[in-house]
């Protein structure tokens, strides 16, 4: 059995809707990254930590009826959401695995493409996880990972309790057993495992209170700041102070939110 703790951000309808909104906000950047992999008709693909399947849909659209897609997702609730979609559109070349990836039986030397977005930073033994992922790729196969390097996140102008937001969010990730910097450690594992690094590109976005990206941050804050308190990552006073400061900055049209860095990491198995 995996040593992974329960997934820190939780499994419920509110979180599903947040993930859906998040997908829309970041879709352009994920699409560009997916295009760079060269994924096309008939590829065998693996989407790990697929959640409700928003990226899985995009991958399935690219591989068509002749391809194969395996999705691995421990939450039955998220997986069922994607299964319903597949049934509606009559896709029958999808294999659903309802487990943590660490525990799943996965074909070795098989996949043309492995894709992971916002997963590896949450798991407890990311290096073992990555080595297992690489083992399931065929020679010449591509692995493409998008995840945080938890720097940059900030709201301007500075001056208030929300200045230290990044520290609280990083502690939140760590309390769930994750590593908010794991994405930047992936190239070292690639080198040891005979995977050629073919892309390493940071993505950061910024916007004012009316922008989708500010609203993305707001949706996270409106739920997760309280969960940070419930999980004892921050005190009640910190929770109230950060929330009040965040809410007042939202009303200031001159506020600018800068996202944490997302690192696109892509490799080819030699
Ligand atoms: C932030 S969501 C991202 C979902 C999806 N990849 C996306 O980009 O919309 C993280 C997902 O990883 C899943 N997850 C957490 N731990 C996992 C593990 N050990 N193996 C596979 N999936 C995991 C969670 O259940 C959740 O659905």
Overview of this structure, please?
This protein has 270 residues and is α/β, with parallel strands linked by helices. It has helices spanning 13-37, 54-63, 76-88, 126-135, 165-175, 186-192, 212-230, 236-250; strands spanning 44-48, 68-72, 94-97, 111-117, 137-149, 154-156, 195-203, 206-207, 256-258, 261-269. Helix 4 links the parallel strand 4 (111-117) and strand 5 (137-149). Helix 1 packs across helix 7 and helix 7 packs antiparallel against helix 8 (236-250). The longest helix is centred in the first third of the chain and has 25 residues, at 13-37. The chain is globular. The mean pLDDT is 95. It binds S-adenosylmethionine. S-adenosylmethionine binds at residues 2, 4, 7, 9, 19, 23, 48-51, 54-55, 72-75, 78, 100-102, 117-119, 122-123.
Relevant terms:
22% strand, 3-stranded antiparallel beta sheet, binds S-adenosylmethionine, alpha/beta, 270 residues, Rossmann fold, 8 helices
Q: How would you summarize this macromolecular structure in one to three sentences?
A:
With 270 residues, the chain is an alpha/beta fold.
Overall geometry comes to: globular
Query: Which percent range fits the helix content?
Result: 40-55%
How would you sum up the major sheet? 7 strands, mixed
User: How many domains make up the 3D coordinates?
Assistant: 1
CATH class: Alpha Beta
- Spatial strand order of the main sheet: 3-2-1-4-5-10-7
**Uncertain ranges:** none
Number of helices: 8
By DSSP, the count of extended strands is 10
């Amino acid at each position: 059995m995996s040593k992974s703790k329960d997934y820190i951000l939780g499994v419920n309808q509110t979180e599903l809707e947040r993930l859906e909104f998040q997908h829309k906000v970041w879709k352009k950047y994920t699409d560009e990254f997916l295009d760079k992999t060269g994924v096309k008709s008939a590829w065998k693909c693996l989407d790990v930590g697929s959640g409700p399947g928003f990226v899985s849909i995009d991958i399935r659209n690219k591989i068509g009826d002749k391809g194969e897609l395996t999705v691995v997702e421990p939450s039955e609730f998220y997986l069922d959401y994607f299964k319903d979609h597949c049934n509606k559109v009559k896709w029958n070349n999808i294999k659903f695995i309802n487990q943590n990836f660490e525990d799943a039986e996965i074909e070795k030397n098989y996949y043309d493409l492995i894709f992971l977005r916002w997963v590896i930073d949450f798991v407890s033994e990311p290096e073992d996880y990555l080595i297992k992922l690489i083992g399931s790729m065929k020679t010449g196969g591509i692995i493409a990972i998008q995840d945080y390097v938890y720097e940059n996140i900030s709201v301007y102008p500075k001056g208030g309790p929300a200045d230290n937001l990044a520290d609280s969010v990083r502690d939140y990730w760590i309390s769930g057993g994750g590593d908010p910097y794991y994405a930047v450690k992936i190239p070292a594992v690639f080198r040891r495992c005979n995977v050629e690094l073919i892309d390493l590109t940071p993505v950061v976005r910024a916007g004012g209170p009316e922008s989708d990206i500010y609203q993305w941050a707001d949706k996270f804050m409106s739920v997760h700041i309280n969960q940070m308190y419930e999980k004892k990552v921050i005190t009640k006073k910190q929770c109230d102070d950060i929330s009040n400061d965040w809410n007042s900055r939202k009303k200031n049209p001159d506020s600018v939110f800068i996202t944490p860095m997302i690192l696109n990491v892509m490799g080819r198995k030699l």
